[in-house]
Design goal:
By secondary structure, the protein is of the alpha/beta class. Helix content is about 30%, strand content about 25%.
Length: about 325
């Protein structure tokens, strides 16, 4: 009797990118995930984390989406100080499993998927929470998330005419303007400060590094009437900006509340208006007036990673991308 062999598909970051999953597809996938979340048709246990140093964390992120036939786990690290070593701040892998046998079927880089799904989830949020006639988009931080967010938000906020960008690293700002100016058909300008960006923007994205345990650097008084605020990370904002928002929205309240860490700057959980999936599925209203100040915090759901990774896996198989490795023989 011949031995049976099991195999697993290995995909590098380049392989993942080469599958050609577009930002539009990523946003569509993110909205499908929020729909499944709103139906409560998922398993997404709050992600446990390990904190090795003050500016680092590692998360294990399992998820199961029966409606999208996807199950897997992401293991991801965020080491903000890696920039000093000239290596990525975010690194990790995603493992997908077969729904019927549990066999691991794919092992892939997660960094590109993480960046793409984070921005895609934000785009879905903006669709329901921003004023869609917004003219000025403000971004604080000029790194990878700033670039991904600008691309997807410009597709949602079609009337944006001006993008204001600030980063304390002037080289990063110049690179952002040079790069994105060739991609986005609207004016992009360098602002002198985060305050100047926030005060004058209809939609605000803060895409800075990990600010947990540090004094707030973004203040409530800077927010204009009708603004939509989209922090890519959970900390850095004056707590009153969250507490006093007309609507405070999260992606997953169980995960957000479990992982929320109180300190002298964040004394308790902000009052929740809704999970975004409740708005996507029509259970609660999104933006209702032009003047509402709305803040949405996305802790980051593994559901988005696994849904997008499953799509990457299927396209990679179709296109013959990646390396098939032996996994088990018995």
């Amino acid at each position: 009797m011949k031995n049976k062999k099991m195999e697993i598909l290995y995909l590098t970051r380049k392989d993942v990118i080469d599958t050609g999953i577009t930002h539009t597809v990523a946003v569509d996938t993110a909205e499908k995930v929020f729909t499944e979340h709103g139906k409560r048709n998922y398993q997404n246990p709050p992600k446990p984390g390990l904190y090795l140093h003050s500016d680092t964390y590692l998360n294990a992120m399992p998820a199961y989406l029966p409606g999208l036939n996807a199950v897997g786990i992401k293991w991801v690290s965020v080491f903000s100080s890696n920039a000093k070593l000239n290596i990525p701040a975010i690194m990790g892998v995603i493992i997908l499993s077969d729904l019927n046998t549990g066999q691991p079927i794919a092992f892939m880089d997660c960094a590109y998927i993480t960046a793409q799904r984070t921005a895609a989830a934000s785009a879905v949020a903006a669709k329901y929470l921003a004023n869609l006639d917004s003219k000025v988009l403000g971004i604080v931080g000029a790194g990878e998330q700033a670039r991904f967010h600008l691309i997807v938000l410009k597709d949602i906020l079609k009337q944006v005419e001006l993008v204001k960008i600030y980063d304390k690293n002037e080289n990063a700002t110049r690179k952002f303007i040079d790069t994105m100016g060739q991609i986005i058909s609207c004016k992009i300008i360098d602002s002198p400060s985060a305050e100047a960006v926030i005060r004058e923007s209809d939609v605000v994205v803060t895409a800075t590094g990990n600010l947990l345990g540090k004094p707030p650097i973004f203040l409530e008084e800077w927010l204009k009437e009708g603004v939509y605020v989209l922090p890519v990370h959970n900390y850095g904002w004056e707590f009153s900006a969250l507490e006093n928002a007309d609507k405070f929205v999260v992606d997953d309240w169980k995960q957000y509340s479990t992982n929320f860490r109180t300190d002298e700057y964040n004394p308790h959980l902000p009052p929740l208006y809704a999970e975004l999936s409740e708005i996507v599925t029509g259970k609660k209203k999104g933006r209702e007036t032009k003047v509402e100040k709305i803040v949405s915090m996305h802790e980051g759901m593994a559901l988005h990673d696994i849904a997008l990774a499953s799509l990457v896996f299927e396209v990679a198989k179709e296109k013959g991308i990646g390396i098939t490795l032996p996994f088990m023989e018995f």
